[in-house]
Each structure stands twice: as C-alpha cells, then as structure tokens.
Amino acid sequence: MTLRAYWISGGRWGYTACDRTNLVDPTGGCGANRVETLPFWAGWGAVGVGAALAVLVVCALRFPGRYSVAGSWAAAALLLVLAFPLHLLFEIPAALAGRPSDWRDLGARLALATGGLLFAGLANACAPQRGAREAGYQPVPRWTRRWAYGAVALPVVGWAVPHGLWVLGVPFGISQRQLDDIHRNLSTWTGVAITLVPPLAGLLVLGLIQRWGQQFPRWVPGLRERQVPRPLALIPAGVVALTLLTYGVLSVAVLATQVLTGDTHWSEVREGWAVTATLLVFLCWGVTLGVTTTGYAIATRPRQERTTNTGLSL
C-alpha cells in the first residue's frame, strides 16, 4: 500500500505502463514516467484491496474459524490468479536468457504470488485439525496416474515439439512470415529457454503420483523420509491448474471473438493452426493437472476425514 500511495502522490518508481500503452520499452516501464493520471486499480483501488486484506489478516488471527479460513483461501486464490504464474514461467527464463523484460511487472507478479502463498499458509494454520495423515506412501487412484501422464505429455507434444521446430527454422503449422517474426523477436537462447521450461516444469506433476510427492527422498538433508505437507503440493499444483485453465479459456474466447468480428479470418487460423492448437494445449493441460491434483488430495486425506466419509457412505 505504501508503494501505491507513493504512485498516487506522483512518484513513478517501480510503476509500469506496459499493459496500457503501445510504447516499446519494457525495461523502462513503457513510458511510466509520462503517465500523469494513475488508473484506479493501480492506485486507490489497490490501496482499498490492500486494506481489506490487512483487515482479513487481523480477523483471521484474532477470530480463527470457518469464515477466516474461507476468506483466507479466497484471498490466496485472488492474489495467485492476479499474479498469473504462467506469465512468470515464460518471462523469467526469457529475461535470464537476455530478452528485454519489464522488471517492474515481474517484481509485482512475484509479490502477488508470494502474498497468495502466505494467505494459503494462513488459511491452513487457521483450519481446524482433522486428524493425522497415515504414515508412509498412500497409493493414488489408478485414474490419477492416467491423467498425470497426460499432464506430462501435453507440454512436450503440444508445446516443446512445435516450438523446438520453430527455433530450428522449420515452419511447422505456421507461415513463413510468422516464422520470420519469431526469429526476429526472439534470440536463440530465449527460444530454447521458452521451449524447454514448460515441459521440464511439467515433470513435477509426477510428484503427485509418486512416493517422493508424499515423502521427502532419503537424499534430502534433514527431511529424509518425512511426510511432505499437503499444502506444499496442493497449492502450487492447484494454482498452476487454475492459471492454465483461465489462460486457455480466455485465449480461446478472444480468438473466437476476433473471428466472429472479422478481425481474424478463418484463412489465418488455418494457416497458423499450430498456434491455435497451442491454446487448446493450455486448456487441456489445466484440466489434466486439475484432475491429477484432485487424485492426490483424495489419496492424502487425513485419517479422521477418511473414517468420517466411510461412515457416511455406509
């Protein structure tokens, strides 16, 4: 809130206008110093949300209970969605590879993601105890494994393969003009980073169906064979699944709107079918990851909760 108040008073350090202008200067905030009137949600709106979150923290600490837990989870979901981790997944490797990036935007997204994780931790701390988890590895349902393998395969087949071909200069599913634009805007190292990071990150999904996702491996100092806290696996997986779904749905909706309004022609969609297919890959990736996360949550439920559910089913 302090930084927002500083922007409202006229300062512009740390402020970015890259999402509101057509200026091409990501390292300089896209002309942020020339913005005279601060948008509402970047100023007073953000201050109001910050004040509401501060009140929520105080209420959760003083009056822990069902409503505090629900409010904390809602705040965590809001902050993590606003952080849009998928953007970080691409932009950070690209920035490290030397591509000009908007450090103000990346810093703000990292702060939002950190805040979301902290609120998730607060919700978990305020939640009533539901019994201890069973020691050792609890096998996940068989259907969880099938969905997990799909979540691992999708970023490889639907993202790494076409992007790898484009980096190599092969116009797979796109026109030569689009391929030339890719090579003009991306360096080789940036293209390699963008190609490899998503499938490598997708391998973490295997932790939701393997022993090392429930128990730390023996080679981890100080944590060997201890139980992995459920939030440590469920929160990141759930957030990424939600982000992928959101991005996929919004992207498909934007494309459909452009086609219906005539801004994009069907001939362009057919010519660049691989790009359109990438949007569907994100959507399906989010679904498969979400189902896998659900299977992990079912397998790692506390013992008391399992007993209660079994009694109700009888």
Report the uncertain regions. Answer: 310-314
Helix content: 55-70%
In terms of quaternary structure, what is this? single chain
Provide mean pLDDT, rounded.
78
* Major beta-sheet overview: none
Secondary-structure element string: HHHHHHHHHHHH
Distance between the termini: 52 Å
Beta strand count = 0
Q: Quote the beta fraction.
A: under 5%
What does this structure look like?
With 314 residues, the protein is mainly alpha-helical. The protein folds into 2 domains: 2-126; 142-313, no CATH class. It has 12 helices and no strands. It has helices spanning 2-8, 44-62, 66-83, 85-96, 103-126, 142-167, 176-185, 188-202, 230-261, 266-271, 273-299, 303-313. Helix 6 (142-167) runs antiparallel to helix 8 (188-202). The protein is globular and about 60 Å long. Mean pLDDT is 78; it is low at 310-314. Keywords: Membrane, Transmembrane, Transmembrane helix. The chain crosses the membrane at residues 41-61, 73-90, 110-127, 147-168, 188-209, 232-260, 272-299.
